C-alpha cells in the first residue's frame, strides 16, 4: 500500500521524520504567509468586502474544523494517518492555485474566493487531526516543547522575511502600477499553492509508526474525552479564550488600514516586529514549558495579552500619527512575546492531556469544540462592528488655567475599538477559568516566576525579553516606591 506505516520506528527514522516535518513546515509557512493575515484582509478589502464578509472569511478556518469527525472515520477505515494527511493536504493546497488563477483570468468574485477558501480550510482541517496524532507518536514526549519551539522559530523567521519582501513589492506596485495590485495578490496565491504542494512531498517522506484506533462505537469514542473532567475544564478555558480572542483579532488589520489609514508596509512592518519578538522568545517558552508546565506558561502570558488588547482601545485617540505608531509598536512587541507562549502552551497541553491510544479522538474533540466558538466569534465581531459604525463614545479631560487651555483625549471608542474592549473583558474572564485545569508537573506561578527569573539572570543574553516581561510589574513597582521614598525624604529633610 502507498505510504505504508512501519511497525516501529528506529532512531534514524525519527531523526529523518523530524527533519522532514520542519521542511514541510517551512513550505507550509510560505504558503500561509502569502495567503493569510494582512495580505488576505487587504485583498478582500480591495475586492470590496464588508465587515461581515471579513468576519466570514476569518471564521472559515475555525468553522471547517467541525468536519474533523471525517478524519477520525478515515483513520479508523485505513489506519494510515500519513496517507490521509498527504492526500488531503494536496487537495487543500490546489484550491489556492484555483483562487489565484481565477483572479488572473478576470473572475474577480468574492464568492469564488470564499468558496475555494472553504475547500482549502476544509481539506486542511481533515488533515489536521491525522497530523497531530502522527506527530504525537513521532516526536519524543520529553522534547515536545523544545522541538516545536525550534520549528516555530524557523517558520516565523521565514514569515518575517517573506512578509517584508511582499509588503514592499505591493506598496511599489500600488504607487506605480495600481491597476496590477489585485493581480499581485493573485500571483501570491498561485505561488502559495506551489509551495504547499512541495511541502506535501516532504510530508510524504516522513515515516509513520503503525497505530490502530479503537473500533468501538463513534459516540462512545467521542464520549471518552467528555467524561474526562480535567480535559473538559481545559476545553472550557480554551473555547472561551478563542471566542474572546477572535471577536477582535480579525479586525486589528482592518482598523489599521481603514480606521488609521496605514499602508500595507506599516501593517506588515508591525506584524514583523511582533513575529520577531515571537521568534526570539518561543524557544525560551518551550524550555520552560518542558521544565515546569504549559499551564504555568499560560498563567504568565495570558494576562499580558489581555493588557495588549486593552491598549488597542487607546490607539487613534491622538490626531498626530507618531504617538499612535509608538503605541502600536509597544502593543505588537508584547503581543509577540505573549502569543508565542500562549500558542505553544495551548498546543502542548492538548497533546499532554490526551492519552496516547485515544490521542486523535481527544485532539479532534478539542479542535471541533473550539472550532464552534472560533467560527462564531468573528461573525459576532463583524455584526458588532457594523452596529457600532454610527456610534461613538468619547471621554476627554479639560485643563484650563490663566494662560493655558489643554484638552486631553482619554478614550475614543468607535466601531472597531468597541470590539477590542469587549474582547478584553471576555479574555479576562477566560483567564480565570484556567485555574480549574490540572496538569502533570504543574508549578505554582509565583515559584515558576522566581526560578525563571533566576535562570534568566544566569542566561541574560538569551532570555532578556522574557526576563524583562516577567519582572516588568515588579520593576515598575520598585520605581514608584523609590519615587515615594524620595518625596517622603524631602518632606522630613532626611537623605535616602
TrEMBL record:
Top-level taxonomic group: Bacteria
Alphabetized UniProt keyword annotations: Membrane, Transmembrane, Transmembrane helix
Keyword ATP-binding among record annotations: no
Regions crossing the membrane: 21-46, 52-75, 82-106, 112-134, 154-173, 185-204, 231-252, 264-285, 297-319, 325-347, 359-384, 416-435
GO MF annotations in UniProt: transmembrane transporter activity
Listed name of the protein: MFS transporter
Organism (species): Chitinophaga silvisoli
Amino acid at each position: 500500500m502507498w505510504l505504508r506505516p512501519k511497525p516501529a520506528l528506529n532512531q534514524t527514522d525519527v531523526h529523518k521524520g523530524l527533519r522532514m516535518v520542519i521542511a514541510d513546515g517551512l513550505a507550509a509557512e510560505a504558503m500561509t504567509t502569502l495567503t493569510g493575515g494582512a495580505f488576505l484582509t487587504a485583498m478582500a478589502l480591495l475586492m470590496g468586502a464588508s465587515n461581515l464578509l471579513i468576519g466570514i472569511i476569518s471564521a472559515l478556518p475555525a468553522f471547517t474544523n467541525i468536519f474533523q469527525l471525517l478524519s477520525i472515520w478515515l483513520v479508523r477505515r485505513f489506519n494510515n494517518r500519513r496517507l490521509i494527511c498527504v492526500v488531503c493536504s494536496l487537495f487543500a493546497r490546489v484550491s489556492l492555485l484555483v483562487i489565484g488563477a481565477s483572479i488572473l483570468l478576470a473572475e474577480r468574485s468574492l464568492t469564488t474566493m470564499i468558496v475555494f477558501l472553504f475547500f482549502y480550510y476544509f481539506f486542511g482541517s481533515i488533515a489536521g487531526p491525522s497530523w497531530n496524532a502522527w506527530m504525537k507518536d513521532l516526536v519524543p514526549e520529553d522534547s515536545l516543547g523544545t522541538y516545536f519551539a525550534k520549528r516555530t522559530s524557523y517558520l516565523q523567521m521565514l514569515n518575517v522575511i517573506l512578509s517584508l519582501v511582499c509588503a514592499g513589492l505591493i506598496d511599489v506596485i500600488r504607487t506605480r502600477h495600481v491597476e496590477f495590485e489585485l493581480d499581485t495578490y493573485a500571483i501570491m496565491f498561485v505561488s502559495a499553492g506551489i509551495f504547499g504542494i512541495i511541502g506535501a512531498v516532504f510530508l510524504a517522506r516522513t515515516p509513520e509508526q503503525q497505530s490502530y484506533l479503537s473500533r468501538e462505537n463513534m459516540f462512545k469514542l467521542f464520549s471518552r474525552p467528555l467524561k474526562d473532567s480535567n480535559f473538559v475544564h481545559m476545553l472550557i478555558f480554551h473555547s472561551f479564550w478563542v471566542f474572546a480572542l477572535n471577536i477582535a483579532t480579525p479586525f486589528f488589520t482592518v482598523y489599521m488600514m481603514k480606521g488609521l489609514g496605514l499602508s500595507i508596509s506599516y501593517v506588515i512592518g508591525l506584524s514583523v516586529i511582533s513575529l520577531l519578538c515571537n521568534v526570539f522568545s518561543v524557544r525560551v517558552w518551550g524550555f520552560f514549558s518542558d521544565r515546569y508546565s504549559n499551564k504555568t506558561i499560560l498563567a504568565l502570558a495570558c494576562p499580558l495579552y489581555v493588557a495588549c488588547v486593552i491598549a488597542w482601545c487607546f490607539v487613534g485617540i491622538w490626531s498626530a500619527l507618531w504617538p499612535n505608531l509608538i503605541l502600536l509598536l509597544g502593543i505588537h512587541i508584547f503581543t509577540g512575546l505573549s502569543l508565542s507562549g500562549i500558542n505553544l502552551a495551548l498546543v502542548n497541553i492538548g497533546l499532554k492531556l490526551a492519552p496516547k491510544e485515544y490521542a486523535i479522538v481527544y485532539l479532534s474533540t478539542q479542535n471541533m469544540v473550539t472550532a464552534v466558538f472560533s467560527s462564531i466569534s468573528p461573525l459576532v465581531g463583524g455584526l458588532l462592528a457594523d452596529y457600532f459604525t454610527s456610534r461613538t463614545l468619547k471621554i476627554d479631560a479639560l485643563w484650563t488655567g490663566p494662560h493655558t487651555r489643554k484638552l486631553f483625549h482619554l478614550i475614543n471608542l468607535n466601531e472597531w475599538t468597541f470590539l477590542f474592549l469587549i474582547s478584553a473583558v471576555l479574555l479576562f474572564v477566560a483567564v480565570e477559568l484556567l485555574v480549574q485545569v490540572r496538569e502533570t508537573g504543574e508549578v505554582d506561578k509565583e515559584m515558576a516566576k522566581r526560578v525563571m527569573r533566576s535562570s534568566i539572570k544566569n542566561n541574560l543574553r538569551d532570555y532578556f525579553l522574557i526576563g524583562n516581561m516577567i519582572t516588568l510589574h515588579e520593576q515598575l513597582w520598585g520605581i514608584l516606591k523609590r519615587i515615594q521614598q524620595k518625596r517622603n525624604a524631602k518632606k522630613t529633610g532626611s537623605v535616602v
